[in-house]
Design brief:
- This protein has seven helices and seven strands, in the order αααβββαβαβαββα.
- It is an alpha+beta fold.
- It has a three-stranded antiparallel sheet.
- α2 packs across α4, α3 crosses α4 and α5 packs across α6.
Length: 228
């Protein structure tokens, strides 16, 4: 827990370490309309976090209980379906993707206009569908006056951003991509920054070698007959 960071600054910490405390304190915070999940029970932060977490792990429900006597917050996770819901589990007893992505979702939903959200590898520990939905989610966060800076190695995450553009929810001019590459020229290592552009259909004008092209490279081999 950290009241100065969470209550006064309304932040989660640079590593999201106060995410559970933030959720406990700001559970009733109203989420901006452009970020509201269609299946959420309400427009408040708690319900919206549960709904977006469901994109990563269906049926996820979170409960954050402050324990001020030990300056900690107890986070409990259960899973709901048509039959009811499970008992609460500790974060260490469920998939690591849940606790890894939780601060990202909370930070995105609660980010204020004019702020900067920096996320490193948001695809880590997520299955492909969850990665794509995270790309879509973070693209939508940028539409509330928040600058989102991502570092990723996931073509699924990139495709989620492309889908947001294709669906008309994010203008292509709001998306900037930079691919860093290193080549050898005249015995020296040369670093280059390549910046492909995205159009209104979510299509990219230039795919440099190594820029999320491994899927196509693999398919090119798979369509050939296997060698006996």
């Amino acid at each position: 827990m950290n009241d100065t960071v969470v209550r006064d600054r309304r932040q989660l910490g640079i590593r999201g370490e106060y995410a559970a405390h933030f959720l406990a304190v700001h559970a009733k915070l109203t989420v901006p309309k452009h970020l509201r999940h269609a299946e959420a029970a309400a427009n408040q932060l708690q319900s919206q976090v549960d709904a977006w977490m469901g994109e990563v792990s269906p049926g996820t429900r979170l409960s954050a209980l402050p324990l001020p006597e030990v300056d900690m917050v107890r986070l409990s996770i259960n899973f709901a379906d048509r039959q009811g819901k499970t008992r609460g589990y500790r974060p260490t007893n469920v998939g690591f993707g849940i606790s890894y992505i939780l601060p990202v979702i909370i930070a995105g939903l609660a980010a204020q206009p004019g702020s900067l959200l920096m996320v490193e590898n948001p695809e880590a520990h997520l299955h492909p569908r969850g990665q794509a939905r995270m790309g879509e989610f973070l693209a939508l966060v940028s539409q509330g006056g928040v600058q989102v800076l991502l570092e990723t190695h996931s073509d699924h995450l990139l495709n989620g951003i492309r889908l947001a553009v294709h669906g008309g929810r994010v203008p292509p001019d709001d998306v900037a991509m930079h691919y860093f590459t290193k080549t050898a020229e005249k015995g020296r290592s040369v670093h280059k920054v390549l910046s492909p552009k995205m159009d209104r259909n979510g299509r990219i004008d230039n795919w440099p070698d190594g820029f999320f092209d491994e899927w196509d490279n693999a398919l090119n081999h798979l369509i050939l007959p296997a060698q006996s």
